[in-house]
Amino acid sequence: MYNSLRKKPFLFFLLWFCILAVAFTWPLCQHIFREIAGEIGDNIYFIWMIGWLQKALFVLHTNPLNVSFLNYPEGWNMARTEMAPAQLVQALPFSLIGGETFGYNMSLLVSFVLSGLLMCYWVRHLTGSNWAGLISGTIFACLPYRQAHFLIGHLNLSGTQWIPLFFWGWFDLLKPGLNQIRKKSAFLAALGLSLTALCSQYYFFMLCLIAGFQLLIQFLFIEKQRLKDRNTWLSLGFFILFSIPLVAAAELPFLALAGSGGMPDRDWGAARMYSAGLTDFLLPGTMHFAFGEWVGSHFNRDLWNEATLYVGVIALGLMIYGLIHKKGGTSWVWSIILSGTITGLVFAMGTDLHWNGTPVEISLPVFLQARLDRETIPLILPGFVFFKFFPFFGKLRAMMRFGLFTLILIACGAGFGFAELLRRIKSNQRWIVTVITVCLILFEFFPEPIQQFSEIKPRPVDEWLAAQPGKGSVMRIPFYLNDDQAGTYYTLYHEKPFIGGFFNAFPPPQYSAIKGLMETFPSRESLAEANQLGVEYFLIEKREVEAAIQRSDDEFGWESLDALLAACDKSGLKLAGTFGDVIVYLNREEECAECKWLKESLRNSQ
């Protein structure tokens, strides 16, 4: 085994991470063409993106960013949400072979393999040890953080593979040594940063912030002489120069949107919900085959998909071992690792201190309670200051995601610790220690087999819509369904304009303007507005209507489904039929007393 690793490390590493990808997503490979892991959620939106990219490029030959049939007739720009173009391009060849669901699943698996490979080679480059690289790559690829976002369907956040590539070049740029222009290192760092920007805006922003702190600490406190070195600044200049083309392509749409007011800052009350606590870094994932159920029943894991930040006892122990036994020649590496680790940890803990998913508050003195009109106050963290004053920081929702960078750097430190451990062991025993360590890591991280798979396919109503002539637009009832991932996906099949889309936190002006009125459907005013928007098909989704009525949603004003249908009939809408769970009404004017006013209002507006 040792000789095969030494002679053909790439093939060994590639095979190893492919095996891990299959094992940690089992039994996805048995469902890979038609189904996705877990419930339908954000995953269906990324599958739509893959299908739309393929259609836009190879069928319509149009710019995929401009989606004219969503938010119809105003249209919609995909820059309003995370596009993850690098992940989409990664999925595209597989989508052309087996469809968008296959492309989505394969993109996730490729991200798993590349995350392990690039982490492995980066640490191998730093330590000179294949075994250390294997340990760090295994830790990073198998992190419960990655498992959680895979299972919840975050294709963009699963694109972690380019971050080690950035750090590979970045560490070399910050490495001690004067009178060197490091173009190769600058290129590697620029490529990693650019591809990260094309995967996730969250990762790009966070990576820039953490790298900035590493740079400041290294040059202001560790190696002050580098500030006067001309070649150091030339190397950083090359890094910026190499970064510009792809970073500009990734960021300009978002900057334009932010400049037009389309990306407002988050509300602090909502943002603080996504502040991590120390327990999030110490608790195994709820997907773990042995401990997951116990963790889920004894701790607050309501935000498990974001709060799964378990670092692992083995990884942390190896990092501490490496730090204790570090050699003088590696001090510069450890200063960069620790500065990034601490920065990521502090920012992941968000705006105020949390413990077990709950804000920690301290009691105020009595004289302050009356003055401040409250009995307790939160323990504010540095993230609060950045949230309030640092550009773009207030647009972040889940600050927990900073924790990924702490995990990456701990995995790197673990590689150094393992390399140091191997130096103290006889050569013929190293493979035994490596196998034991790998087994312990896998035991800590291994999830239970995936229990639920969902098939992504059109509904009967989508097949019926596809057969209808014309390009009348579609509106779903209850209206909140129009800002939904699934409704966006179904447009791939029925190819009708849709007044909604998956707008997430940044709805476009038209949708925001009509939302309140359309929630009164089928009032006269809402039907008049629907005519202006070219709505021809009202899709009344029975289960959602009944659920909204049962919840007594203020935005839904009907006592029963039958009352809603009776109001549709009375308003002059024409029943087209029932297709599974969906009742379709056509917005076609009839000669009836209830709808003559619509014709008159349209004539007046023209």
TrEMBL record:
Keywords from the UniProt entry: Membrane, Transmembrane, Transmembrane helix
Residues annotated as transmembrane: 102-123, 202-221, 233-256, 307-325, 331-355, 399-419, 431-447
Domain of life from the UniProt record: Bacteria
Protein known as: Glycosyltransferase RgtA/B/C/D-like domain-containing protein
